[in-house]
Amino acid sequence: MSDLLDRDEQRFLLGLAREAVESYLKTGKKPKARVEKPRLLEKRGAFVTLRVDDRLRGCIGYPLPTKPLAEAVIEMAIAAATQDYRFAPLTVEELPQTKIEISVLTLPRPVQDPREVEVGRHGIIITRGPYRGLLLPQVPGEYGWDRDTYLRHGCLKAGLDEDEWKKGATIEVFEAQVFSE
Description:
Layout: H1 7-27, E1 45-52, E2 55-62, H2 69-82, E3 98-105, E4 109-110, E5 123-128, E6 131-135, H3 139-143, H4 147-157, E7 170-174, E8 176-180
Antiparallel strand pairs: 1-2, 1-3, 3-8, 4-7, 5-6, 5-7
Helix pairs in contact: 1-2
């Protein structure tokens, strides 16, 4: 993966994400970022994952580069805290136990053969008709999944039968630079 963010850029984005969540939960307002590093102004796909006491508490992102990276991180940090349909909104009381992880994505590319999916390296997007499911590259490692299990869970996340990846669903892969507090 090329164009990796350096430690200062990573720390800046993590601080920005924390500030965004805290500001929004306490005031209902989204902070404005003062960004001086040009790479953080580039449009990039990004996800923000929140964990409280090592349990997933929210994960939302932009798979495609639709916004400048710093802006995407602010928006997705707030969305992960307040709009992930799987969880109740994060509370101010949970903030001290909340750990923030950011995944900065490469552009997705289609694969012709599911064997091209490398567990631990590739995130996946499974699409069939209007249904689409995305899993970040770190997910199969967290659960000890092999490639077939990973692809099955991608289908389930899309709301498809678990074996649709064998029946013509489109599979795209991407990579991510993942860093956390």
